[in-house]
Amino acid sequence: MAADPDAEVDVELFSIVRVYKSGRVERLTGDDVVPAGVDPDTGVASKDVVIDPNAGISARLFLPDVSSLPHAKLPVLVYYHGGGFCIESPFSSRYTSFLNSLVAKAKVIAVSVCYRLAPEHPLPTAYHDSMAALRWVASHADGGEEGWLAEHGDLGRLFVSGDSAGANIAHHVARLAGISGLGTGARIKGAALIHPYFWGEEPVGSETRDRETREKAERLWRLVCPGTTGMDDTLINPLAEGSPGLACERVLVEVAGADLLRERGRAYSEGLKASGWGGEVEMVETEGEGHVFHLDNPASDKALAFMDRLVAFLNRD
What is the tens place of the pLDDT at every residue in 75-101? Predict the structure, then answer.
């Protein structure tokens, strides 16, 4: 009897995604959904919007309690979720909870972008979707269809951020904005890259030399970006072809001491400083913690300290 291709696994990676020989994709985590609304703990309101119905791009918007600031214009944060480009969404409990807390503390408007996921929508789809979402946000600099952004947003104080794959995306949209611009009135002040998902052909610093680990990392990248030129593709290794100049004034890079990706974040920070870009680069390492620890244990002392740093970065003039 012939094997059933819909039951026979072709590839399974990092316990996050399983792809069958039929092409069927099974996500092993990160697929929960919580409704938008008013968070009772923070007073932050959220709602879901469609940015491009044809492409399937949407977002969850977050607005802090503005009752005490009725005439204030607030910074706007465009956030890109992590998940190796193939799991998670802005509608999951962990990202909704994280952004409720961040928005309440930083007093910013957040736009958490839902880009299409690989492998059904391989890269560069996520980059295209993410840039389209950023341009949609920027279009509200002089008004626009979305009331929260038009009435309360200051697009002259625009930030991009993300964790893991989302930090990779944040880098690339900030770079693309420098090439093509965002239009009159919109300006990216800063980019906060949290445990960025970068890699490369050759190890850097104390990065693992273990062949199996490196091959597994390469398989994940080739799964989400089958048209890649390799592990020194600038999509995954932004330092491969010189300066990764960004359209912002300052960059915060957060790395975690026990994270496989730590050395890449450190190398990125140093490369950005040495590139002649001219902006301000701050790198902070949280010792003893793993990848996206602030999402896994948000009440820990180190996660709270991480949150304070991110709030301070967004609130600086």
Answer: 999 999 999 999 999 999 999 999 999
Q: Where is average pLDDT lowest: 29-38, 46-55, 91-100, 234-243?
A: 234-243
Q: What's the CA angle centered on 215, arms 214 and 218, to 5 degrees?
A: 90
pLDDT in tens, 279-302: 999 999 999 999 999 999 999 999
Distance CA 126, CA 134 (A): 12
Q: Are 281 and 248 in contact (CB under 8 A)?
A: no
> Where would I find the beta strands (DSSP E) of 81-166?
109-114, 153-163
How far, rounded to the nearest angstrom, does the alpha carbon of residue 83 sit from its chain's CA centroid?
9
Angle, CA 68 vertex, CA 63 and CA 73 arms, to 5°? 55
* Angle in degrees, CA 64, 114, 249, rounded to 5: 65
Residues annotated as catalytic are 164
Q: What is the C-alpha to C-alpha distance for residues 294 and 307, in angstroms, rounded to an integer?
A: 8
User: What residue ranges in the chain does DSSP mark as E strands?
Assistant: 9-13, 17-20, 25-27, 45-52, 57-63, 74-80, 109-114, 153-163, 188-194, 250-256, 280-286
